[in-house]
Amino acid sequence: MRAQLAFGSVILALLAAGPVSAKGREPTTAELRAQIDALTKRVSELEAAAKSPPPAPASSAAGSTAPPDESAERTAEVEPGPQSGGVPVAARPKSDDNVPGAVHRTRDERVAVAAAPLDRALQGLGSAIEINASKDSSQVKMALTSTLSTTRFDESGKGLGNYSTLGFTASAPLNKSGDFTDLATLDGFANSFNLKLRWSSFRLFLSEGLDTGRDEEIEELAVTNCRKAAGQDQGALKACAPNPIDDAFIRTWAGVALQDEYLSIFFPDKMAFGFGLEGTIGYRKFQYLDAAAIALRSNEKIPWGLRAYGSLFPARTLASLTGAIEYQRAYEDQKAAIACPGPVANTPILCLEGPNGAPKQKDKILGSLELRNQFNLKGNGLFKSVGLSTQLTYDIESDAFGIDVPIYLVPDEKGRLIGGLRFGYRTDKDDFVVGVFVGSAFSLFQP
């Protein structure tokens, strides 16, 4: 319950956020990171409160324990699984989850979801803040996605498991005086404060390699090699005990061949798939010109939308293909106009400029196809991982296309891709835009 209250408090912080850059110039990554740090600092006290352990339940009286129900669902204890480029791919059962007599069994194993902007339909687990910015506009988003249950499977499924997630995304424009016109996804909510609620379900074939112990052998070899190289250096020795161990650590201390073998253990050799539903509600206050009265007036609107999507995850990759259909009831400004009063002797004429009339409703039916992939590059160059999230969107109502290509290049201290460049083009405005984006994961709502 404290996590939900804290989440609401952070959403309110989005409304109070200021612009990240001066109008008329391209914002720098340093400026965006400063804005991220400021937002993250606001939730630090909430994070500490959320991490404090709940009070222990009172113990029951002796002799009051009921006999176990052999038909009840069984859940195995789990340890955190490894990561691939910062993306959790699986978790290893600590105890044997093959419990005789159990109707259902569970294990903590999930689909690997590569990095992508928070406006995408498909989202991975965890929490993050993200800022997108171009020359004259910027937008901040915060997302939380958590599992509703661990992965369930039974004998009839032949290794096919399923689990579901629930996610929230809050978004607000930082430059409230301008339009976020560079978003090439054709999103009608880009200039509104909005909240999204997202439910997703995933089906995957469980990894058989988790039961062989080979992953532990590779991990032990990498840790041993790291400790030998560290010698008596306490700082270096501390780096030899990462939690969780990821494939980058394996590559550094066990070699590329064992890195590939290690990843293959946690990626089943069969395709996974998922689907989901998302609802959006927003708020925007418009100012417009009343030409007849030669006055500026305001009008409040509540945009809303519904989206359904499905995703395919090819075997043993950090790739996904997602198709979505979305209906949006959005609102936009009328074309700009200038109104001036009639001339009066010896009086200067003062004119007003603004959108000519109240905002107009604009319905959208958006079909989109997104191809996402993350590449773990060989060697120790400047970029160890590169991510792409190319999305093509078509607005059926206005017959407009948009293509949006974020390229992830910037990792955080844990190797997770969090920032880079964003290129886009949309046919309705015949506009090609370039922006930057940067994000930060935080642990307040981690599953």
What's the quaternary structure here?
Answer: single chain
Helix content: 10-25%
Question: What is the strand content?
Answer: 35-45%
CATH architecture annotation of the domain at 2-18 and 27-44 and 109-207 and 267-441: Beta Barrel
Element string (H = helix, E = strand): HHHEEEEEEEEEEEHHHHEEEEEEEEEEE
Tally of DSSP β-strands: 22
Shape: elongated
Report the mean per-residue pLDDT as an integer.
Answer: 76
* Number of helical segments with 4 or more residues: 7
Cα-atom radius of gyration: 26 Å
Uncertain residue ranges: 1-5, 17-24, 54-104, 443-447
**End-to-end Cα distance:** 14 Å
Largest sheet: 12 strands, antiparallel, barrel
Q: What is the CATH topology descriptor of the domain at 2-18 and 27-44 and 109-207 and 267-441?
A: Porin
Would you give an account of this structure?
The chain has 447 residues and is an alpha+beta fold. It has a domain at 2-18 and 27-44 and 109-207 and 267-441: Porin. It is built from seven helices and 22 strands. It has helices at 2-15, 29-42, 44-51, 214-230, 234-238, 247-254, 256-266, and strands at 74-75, 78-79, 83-84, 87-88, 92-93, 105-107, 126-133, 138-147, 151-153, 160-173, 193-205, 272-290, 295-301, 304-313, 320-332, 336-339, 352-355, 360-376, 385-395, 400-411, 417-426, 431-441. A twelve-stranded antiparallel barrel has the order 7-8-10-11-12-14-15-18-19-20-21-22. It has a three-stranded mixed sheet with strand order 1-6-9, with no helix packed on it. A two-stranded antiparallel ribbon has the order 2-5. Helix 4 (214-230) packs across helix 6 and helix 6 (247-254) packs antiparallel against helix 7 (256-266). The two termini are 14 Å apart.
